[in-house]
Amino acid sequence: MLEGADETPLLVRTSVYQRLRAAILSCALRPGAQIQERQLAEQYQVSKSPIRDALLKLEEQNLVEVMPRRGYRVKRISLTDARELYEMRQILERESIVRLIEAASNETLAELDTFRSLPPSVGLPEWIEYNSAFHGFIAANCGNSRLGRAGCEAIEQYERLTYVSVTSSSELSLDDFVAEHGAIIDAIQKRDKRQAVALARDHIESSRRRVLDTLENLSVIA
Fold this sequence. Notes:
Blueprint: H1 9-25, E1 34-35, H2 37-44, H3 48-60, E2 64-67, E3 71-74, H4 79-103, H5 106-110, H6 124-140, H7 145-167, H8 174-189, H9 193-215
Antiparallel strand pairs: 1-3, 2-3
């Protein structure tokens, strides 16, 4: 029986798209990997139609590219795209933090405390999920729905960069990132816009330098 046979076609297509997108963003499907509709249909136990629809959406998002007569390929990471993404993150996160501090209730700001720590021995996939959730919380609660959606989309795109850079380095401590998040949370909860924005700027800039240095030495870039 095909997966999702008792669901509406729309739900099947949405599920396939979400699963494929998650596989690309987490690098379960590595940059440069060739993919075929038939193989994906067998893997997800669906027909080719929802696979094709998902791949077309992913092509629009610049995550896959069509290879005439050879199927598709996961888009390699472009240094130019990475630089532009970091520029967007700086702009979006700065505005999100300012608006969050101006408009959010004390109860909403208190929810940031859930991001102050991690369980011991957490794996990389869980850490990336935590990191995205922290920055996503700031975007989603900024009080501007369009700004929030743009911020969350940029953060999701950023997951691929995080995965590639962190797995390629043996010198990084995830605890350091959590400590930086804690300092940002302190400033936000004090409603200190200047300090919160400065800490977030430094946090993103440090990540930008690390990621770009890493990518320049990898074969996954375009």
